[in-house]
Amino acid sequence: MSAKLIKGTEIREQILTEIADEVATIKRGHGAVPGLVTILVGENPASISYVTLKIKTAHRLGFNEIQDTQPIDIPEEELLALIDKYNNDDTINGILVQLPLPDHIDEKKVLNALDPDKDVDGFHPINVGRLMIGGDEVKFPPCTPAGIQEMIVRSGIETKGAEVVVVGRSNIVGKPIANMMFQKGPGANATVTVVHTGTKNLDAHCKRADILIVAAGVPDLVKPEWIKPGSCVIDVGVNRVGEKPSKKDPNKMVAVLKGDVDFDAAKEIAGYITPVPGGVGPMTITMLMKNTLKSLKFKLGIQ
Ligand code: NAP
Predict the structure, then answer these.
(1) Is 70 a catalytic residue?
(2) Ligand 1, residues 238, 283, 284, 287: which to mutate, most atoms within 8 A of Cβ?
(3) What is the pTM of this model?
């Protein structure tokens, strides 16, 4: 069997088109566009390229976007004052603080200073609580898990009653996606098991999964014999395993990326599978844009 590929690049285009259409409609009807500010502290190259991509996407959708770059030695109080300024800025619907922050800044303190109603990353404890309660309480589901759920739903995969196994229990992927998949509602209502380094017989759990979501950060952790034939395999892992010359510019080296699943073998057993790269990766920024639009809609009372 050869699995159907779930391409994040294609699903991203569908969702971005939907967002752009909605932005245009709201602009016509209400004279407002979503406002997103990205706060970047220092010049970490990986953060810069990620932020650049966010800005490009926000531009394409007609958002009002601000990139606020601060020096690496900004005192913590100044960063907190900056967040306070954007919390009180009516034109801003989403505030994103690019992580990691330098060591002298308490990351938790900074994230907790965000207005939960502008926390489009969904990491503020109030939004984590809202996600746990589920249903109408949820404002901003965290972006990577929200992207995973969209991929499953838009691929027409039945989640109700499905055995979902999540490998990994991080706050940004494992815990929230597990929580989202067992809620009572569309695109969820599944029976969820979360496995981690303390789990015995990891393989036996994975073998039961109708939907296997792997977010461990270990290349090729999931072996083909752990996969239930015909199941859906979502590989969240992004592991740099080497370098190769770029296709665009052979003089430039680019990272060789691998997921947490042995893709070549797994695609012969699974019914659906996400590639790495081009699978879950493109969904994260897409869902950030969706959350920012949602934030404006909440404010306008048009949810
Ligand atoms: P993380 O914080 O390092 O968490 C990894 C989780 O996997 C932990 O809960 C850990 O268990 C578990 N784990 C690690 N090795 C394991 C093993 N051998 N057996 C069972 N469980 C194991 O990682 P993360 O932030 O969730 O990210 C996971 C992967 O997803 C990374 O490759 C990351 O780059 C990728 N990622 C991609 C996107 C995207 O595409 N947009 C977004 C976020 C993350 P313990 O809790 O027991 O230590």
Answers:
(1) no
(2) 238
(3) 0.97
